[in-house]
Write a structure and sequence with these properties.
It contains 8 helices and 9 strands. With 203 residues, it is α/β, with parallel strands linked by helices.
Length: 203
């Protein structure tokens, strides 16, 4: 059992989750990641060598490694996977902990999860992320919405790791409930429309 303590946790160490966590580590945040795939946990530690970075494959050990109140980001496929993670981790959390869904969840699902986790005393918000692999690693655009208290806690970290335009971080509090995921949905629609237009003009 690890005795080290980390200030930020990530569930899901795929391309986006791993790179976002390493971005935080680059900015001096001590980070822990959880994935059921040992190779992904090992890759996190390899790429984070020299920084306070740790990968876990068991959920209880991961949760226990985090400083209280805990702050955990989920970057897992939208839909049932998010609900499964919430179901498994909620009994391990305490009132006042922060849980963030940074996948591409549908905003109606986020509203439902906000209401549910409020009954458990857990601060929850949904946050869309744009920028892909390189953005996650070097500076993404982030769209957080939901629990305002949770955002204020996370604001210094998010502003540090975000992309900058004229020195201004590409992150801001969108609004209550599922506002963040709703804006990300609109963002995706605009992006895909532009991509289609470029393709049609080219061919």
């Amino acid at each position: 059992m690890s005795t080290e303590q980390y200030t930020m946790g990530m569930i899901g160490l795929g391309t986006m989750g791993r790179n976002l966590l390493l971005n935080m580590a680059d900015h001096g945040v001590s980070v822990a990641g959880h994935d059921t795939d040992q190779s992904k946990a090992d890759l996190l530690e390899k790429e984070g060598e020299g920084k306070k970075v740790k990968g876990f494959v068991t959920l209880p050990e991961f949760v226990q490694s985090l400083t209280i109140p805990r702050t955990i980001i989920m970057l897992v496929p939208a839909g049932k996977a998010v609900d499964s993670v919430i179901e498994n981790i909620t009994p391990l959390l305490s009132e006042g902990d922060i849980l963030i869904d940074s996948g591409n969840s549908h905003f109606t699902d986020t509203n439902r999860r906000v209401d549910y986790l409020q009954t458990k005393g857990i601060h929850f918000f949904g946050m869309g992320i744009s920028g892909g692999e390189s953005g996650a690693r070097r500076g993404p655009s982030m769209m957080p919405g939901g629990d305002k208290h949770a955002y204020e806690v996370m604001k210094p970290v998010f502003e540090a790791i975000a992309a900058k335009v004229d020195g201004v971080p590409c992150v801001t509090y969108i609004g209550p409930g599922a506002s963040g995921h709703f804006v990300k949905m609109v963002h995706n629609g605009i992006e895909y429309g532009i991509m289609q237009l470029i393709a049609e003009l080219r061919y």
